[in-house]
What we know:
- The complex is a heterodimer of chains A (about 80) and B (about 300).
- By secondary structure, chain A is mainly α.
- Chain A has helices spanning about 5-15, 40-50, 60-65, 65-75.
- In chain A, helix 1 packs across helix 2 (about 40-50) and helix 1 packs across helix 4 (about 65-75).
- Chain B is of the alpha/beta class.
- In chain B, about 50% of the residues lie in helices and about 20% in strands.
- Chain B contains 12 helices and 7 strands.
- In chain B, strands 3-2-1-4-5-7-6 form a 7-stranded mixed β-sheet, sandwiched between helices.
- Chain B starts with a helix and ends in an 8-residue tail after the last strand.
- Classes of the chains: A mainly alpha (about 80), B alpha/beta (about 300).
- The interface of A and B includes residues 19, 40 and 46 of A.
Amino acid sequence: MTQVEVIAKLQTIFDDLLLEPVVLTPELSANDVEEWTSLVQISLLVAVENEFGIQFNVGEVERTRNIGEFAQLILQRRKPT
Amino acid sequence: MNTPWLDQVLLQVEAANPAHGKKLRKRLGGLGPEYAQRAEVHFAAYDEAQRTDGRSLAFGVECYLALSADMVEERKKFLRTGGYSNTSYKAVEEKVYGRPEVMEYHMHGLALAQFLWPEQYERLRFFCDHLPGYAATARSYLEIGGGHGLYTKTALALLPPGTRIDLVDISASSLKLARQMIQSDAVTFTLRDLFEYESPVRYDLISIAEVIEHVEDPIAMMRRVGALLAPDGTVFATTPINAPMIDHIYLFRTVDEIRALLARAGFVVVREITVLSEDVPAASATKLKIPVMYAAFLRHAPPDPSRP
């Protein structure tokens, strides 16, 4: 799976959870999206964990600065299929 | 307005968790000077009260950060399972109430959260704005589950002098903090389960704030409140929906569920408010199960003429 494919899956999750449409790009961060609050982030993380069959370690998501880095983290956490 | 105590709290939160501190500054910024003044009084009183134990406001902030970390974990579990992690009083007693060190940081964290979470402040403001309107002829006030003591202390300032003020709580940790915060001989503190609490009076005013989500049978709890309330008395009741915490048992999924429960327990709503805990559109809050604070003033429902 590539970063582009991960971001495409993330787009579906974001579309499902957020009311205002947002186009995900590798550079996009939580600061760019008003609706992306800390509680919303937890909902997004749980949905991402379910979708990709992974579990994040404490604090590692917070260290990612944008969608691109978040997608890379998902790729690292994802078990090889 | 200078807000040295609030500034101290926010700086300490930011140092430990920059994203959380930023969120608090953003959400608290619009609450206005009345909020700032009340927050200063509360944080200063907390700091002074803690000096007797060799602590300060900084201890409270540490507790608040621990409480916040617990909430993140509880929220993840809630979103994964659809329920609260504890569904019985016994489980919460083992994990929280029976562990003084957990109970202490949890209660002290909540004491600070009253002025760090806008929905909690809106709840207090609702109480302050409307309690005097119900209190003109009140001679007695009961606080159930007084927790950190803020509401009893506020009632003490708002009610006519000479009003009987009682506080009953099942937790020794809560009572200790409430005593420290209230510091008044005008309040009678009782450590007891509400179902074992006996009073020589039926109260004109009863406050039961953020309590019924902590019990397995909130209808029984509210019926007990009804038994303690004078025929013309008023109840201030609050509880949240979709609000996972380490000591929450009963999950309300919608505000209508709360209203239905209050009606079944024999109350009518006189006035109410709901406040979202995040700055998101209401539809988004429902979709994402964002917590909602519900508060209401209640009276006894009139007798049902269709019943013999």
